[in-house]
Amino acid sequence: MSGDQPHILLIDDESIALSNMSHVLEREGYTVTACENGERGLAAMQAAEFDVVLTDLRMPGIDGMDVLRHIRESTPDVPVIMITGHASLDSAVDAMKAGAFHYIAKPFRLDEAREVVRSALELRRIKRENSQLKERIQDISSRASIITQDLGMQRVLETARQIAVTDTSVVIHGESGTGKELLARFIHHFSQRSKGPFVAFNCGALQEEIAASELFGHEKGAFTGANANKIGLFEAAQGGTLFLDEVAEMPLLMQVKLLRVLQERELMRVGSTQAIDIDVRIIAASNRDLKAAVDEGQMRNDLYFRLNVVTLTLPALRERRDDIPLLAYYFLRKFSTMMERDLQEISTEAMQRLVDYDYPGNIRELSNFIERGVALTQGNKLDIEHLPQNLGSISVRVFKPEMAATPTTLKEQEREHILQALKLANGKRTEAAKLLGIDRVSLWRKLKKLGIESS
Questions:
Q1: Which of the chain's termini has less CB crowding within 10 Å, N or C?
Q2: Across-strand partners of 171?
Q3: Edge-to-edge, what's the strand order for the sheet holding 102-105?
Q4: pLDDT tens per residue across span 312-361
Q5: What is the pTM of this model?
């Protein structure tokens, strides 16, 4: 609102009606400026900011339609309520078509008037919040900023800034879709290596032989199809940062090779005997507990300690619900620009549905919802019918240790999470992998490891 109390402009050429309505609104706790004609009403609009305008439709000189047209041109976000007699209801309907928020017919009930004003103020509040969100998003640099107003997330970012200036190895832990690569880029941006390259690699996406070639490079003739020398991602990241996503999914033999590179700060390309010096900072990430992966024999203990100097844990989106509106508007702006649409708003009902959902796929899933909505929307507002129809009925189970008599194992939790994603994707592995934030090959490996049958 424009101040501590909503400020309402009331315009009516009937002095008794003006006095009575002023009294009613002031008793509701509103600040009221009362004007007895349209000329003074427009002058008041130039001198102060108002949250709602109530104006009589029929007035000598500047009438209610003139006031409405002026407000639509000068301050279109301010709701205008028309006050009209029975004889001019048709004109009131015309005013609604011209952009009036509502009309109140004389004689009116006080409860009706109060409710219409409350509704108009709520609309004004939502439009203000939307405008503020858009302004904040406009100021965000996509290269170095992470969109959040959550205190827990802000603490993570503060720690990330502190360690960014060092050259220590970092592990980022968080569920799929929480923005682990984005946080890695954030650290890189604030580091002394920011002018160097940032290179990302998914450790579970490729077979061992191909992964070795991608990371370390190869010499011509090293294997069938190696028709030329190729530098690996370590060399490509020289002077910068190498981000190893899903590091716990890396095969054990590859882990041995990676450990040697980290210890010796040098590598040999596949098929070569010549060592190459490496100057790269490593940031690793996983949606699993790396210590549990070590205990289960799926990750080398020495590699774990080499990587895990500092751990940053990203909260799930359901744990930072205050960020959902901010993120939703960011994605609305992003996809509207990409698709050359003119979407400006998300309806109250749609936003409430988005805020209430638990997001097993986290930010990536919210992004998918908004992208889908922008693609389906014809007007300038994303409404509830543009969201997935089953969004309101989806029930996502979130494991809470305090609710369980015997805590489930991480393996059981992972199994439950994957089964839920498959259910949401109607058994389609590619769609389930997107929800989980992994590629289809990694999902296949997890299904095989957990003994889950899926077509």
A1: C
A2: 284, 311
A3: 31-35, 7-11, 52-56, 80-84, 102-105
A4: 999 999 999 989 999 999 899 889 988 988 888 999 889 989 998 999 99
A5: 0.59
